[in-house]
Amino acid sequence: MSNTRPAVAPGFGGLLVRAGVCAYVGALVALPLAALLAEGLGQGVRALWDAVSAPVAAEALRLTLTTAAIMALVNAVMGTATAWVLARYDFPGRGLLSALVDLPFAIPTLVTGVMLVLLFGPQSSLGGWFAAHGFPIAFAAPSIVLALLFITVPFVVRAVEPVLMEQDPAEEEAARTLGASTFTVFWRVLLPPLWPSLLSGTIRSYARALGEFGSIVVVSGNIPHRTLTAPIYVFGEIESGRSEVAAAISVVLLAVALGLTFGARAIERLTGTARA
Amino acid sequence: MKPLLHRSPIVVAAAVLAAATLAACGDGTPTPRTSSAPAASVVRTLVLGAYTTPREAYGKAIIPAFQRYWKERTGEEVKFQESYLGSGAQSRAIVGGFEADIAALSLEADVESIAKAGLITHDWKAGTANGMVTRSIVVLAVRAGNPKGIRDWDDLRTPHLNVLTPNVRTSGGAMWNVCALYGAALRGQTSASKGEPSGAEQLLADVLRNVSVMDKGARESIVNFEKGVGDVAITYENEVLVGRQAGRDYEYVVPRSTILIENPVAVIDTYVDKHKSRDLAEGFVAFLRTPEAQRAFAQYGYRPVEETIAKEVEGHFPRVQDLFTVHDLGGWPEIQKTLFAPGAAYDRVTNSLGARQ
Asked: Residue B63: how many CA atoms within 13 Å on its side-chain side?
């Protein structure tokens, strides 16, 4: 994909399209954001701090940020490996693997939660085995990481894969012929061009995970201080009529996600892999 | 990939037009219309905004019975639009503009907030049974044969017991559960000393420490219990009875002291006047207290509010040694203040649990 901007359509028609698109995206994305900021900051920064620093809220935010971080780390490693396999090998079932990678985007997240409970719930043999060995998964923190991993599978794979496809496998082969170990090949040949897309894919998966609700509400157990994540805390505050607290926590989540999204764009722009 | 659109604003115009058309079609908000169709029988619509647990009772028994009853009396067909949400969520939906003719909720406080929004203008508690239509009690659902030997609230303190109760922030049922436990302790019916809030808070803390799943609502909670999660579920008696009717093999234990749950129903003045359905809505609410409807509720595990029917089905419901009501705890506003408000007992207990870990 080239880095030059598309030619601008001349005349009034082009202007109309641009204005229309700006108005559309503005109304669809910017307006709701503005409404949230107005509600979340409406009571002043002090009230926002009080809402965020309440013990249950702070703990929920911490849990959300850390489980998302664990997910992002695993995703960065396994996503890169998956992309590498997809880009370098042709094998029976490759098409199926590629389709499986995309599948999580098509599955309602609530269904993801239900699947995980069926698989890892204490009544299932697998879940029962883990629980009996002192490592319960469903209704415990590991289920949150698992749910996040499931819903974010495509992010890193699909960010890294096109870069790998463009890379000439001959470079890897040359390095190997010259006696480089597998690790050296990976670290010195394969990885350098991947960094930008790997980082931006990882960051986007992290930002996506911050707001995950549907799967976690089913699978985590939602116990304050233990398994209650920030989005579910926000939901509870809305349900109990404390929308200003809900908005305050949402503003924090939004700020982290926005910061990360702009960070990802900055990385892409600096390294010339920008999509726009 | 040069966008095709750049060359043809007409396509955009067409797309915008299509979107606008869709939007216009989507504008069909579910406003019931009492159309004066020239058909022989008039069809009228009633919108019911209810909480989740009585869904089967309404859908399978009471609504069909009312449709027959109304048809016999007036010759009119009645169509129902039913919505079932958590009690608090339903209340907020109605306040937010969901034009229900009738609210059938779990908590008096949820009907009060509709009244406070100005949508209910009559004194809805003035009628029969103080505006209440069904009763139940908070009980402890246990596994078949009660393997953990649960008898009363204090047994829920046993270390490593796995307890289910929904989230009080999202579930009216969860609030009933906490009130039952806390009230029993305050009344001196548990190991906590009578009238001593700190003892009641300690009991609440010990039980909450054993809670492994806090679901969004009472229904989700009992569904999880049915799937095999947990040793005990704090829940409504009617939920357990309905589950047992459906062939589930769990049992329930009635604590020595528990709270009487009363579920309100109210006609929403603003919307019935708008829909011109006041006679119909009031007819339905009155019907809910007829022997026929009360018997149907009893079949679905609810304790009747009508004395005669209550006597009739007495044998189906275990007697409670010390049954108390929200009024014994000072009424909902007081309970909100002492138990559920930010910084009140429930918050303190949750925070203390976090601090100890």
From this structure: 18
- Tokens found for residue B261: 């749950």
Here the ipTM equals: 0.75
Q: 3-state DSSP call for residue B229?
A: coil
Task: Tell me which residues of chain B, numbers 218 to 257, contact chain A at a CB-CB cutoff of 8 Å.
Answer: 227-229
Could you give phi then psi for residue B256, rounded to 5 degrees?
Answer: -55, -40
d(CA A106, CA A112): 10
Q: Which residues of A fall within a CB distance of 8 Å from B9?
A: 13-14, 16-17
DSSP state of B175: H
In the chain, the amino acid numbered B128 is T
First and final C-alpha spacing in chain B: 56
DSSP annotation of B329 reads: G
d(CA B124, CA B303): 21
Q: Which residues pair with B303 in a beta bridge?
A: B135
Written as one letter, the residue type at B226 is: E
Report the candidate in B254, B238, B259, B237 with the shortest Cα–Cα distance to residue B327: B259
B342–A121 C-beta distance less than 8 A: no
In total, the C-beta contacts within 8 angstroms joining chain A to chain B are: 82
Q: Is the dihedral of CA B132, B138, B144, B146 positive or negative?
A: negative
Task: Identify all chain A residues contacting B18, using CB atoms and an 8 Å cutoff.
Answer: none
B187/B193 Cα distance (integer angstroms): 8
Q: Tell me the nearest-neighbour CA distance from B40 into chain A, angstroms.
A: 45
Tens-level pLDDT at each residue, chain B (357 residues): 334 334 344 444 444 444 444 444 433 344 444 444 444 568 999 999 999 889 889 999 999 999 999 999 999 999 999 999 888 889 989 998 999 999 999 889 899 999 999 999 999 998 778 899 999 999 999 999 999 999 999 999 999 999 999 999 888 889 999 999 999 999 999 999 899 999 999 999 999 999 999 998 888 899 899 988 999 999 999 999 988 988 999 999 999 999 999 999 999 999 999 999 999 999 999 999 999 999 999 999 999 999 999 999 999 899 999 999 999 999 989 999 999 998 899 999 998 887 654
Within a 13 Å sphere around the CA of B104, how many CA atoms are in the beta-carbon half? 25
Q: Which residue has the tokens 């989700």?
A: B220
| Residue B276, Ramachandran bin (φ over 0: left; ψ between -120 and 50: alpha; else beta) | left
Q: Which amino acid is at B91?
A: S
Beta strand pairing call for B232-236 and B163-164:
parallel
CA-wise closest residue to B321 among B253, B237, B257: B257
How many other C-beta atoms can be found within 10 angstroms of the C-beta atom of residue A43?
15
- List chain B residues with CB under 8 Å of A55: 350-351, 354-355
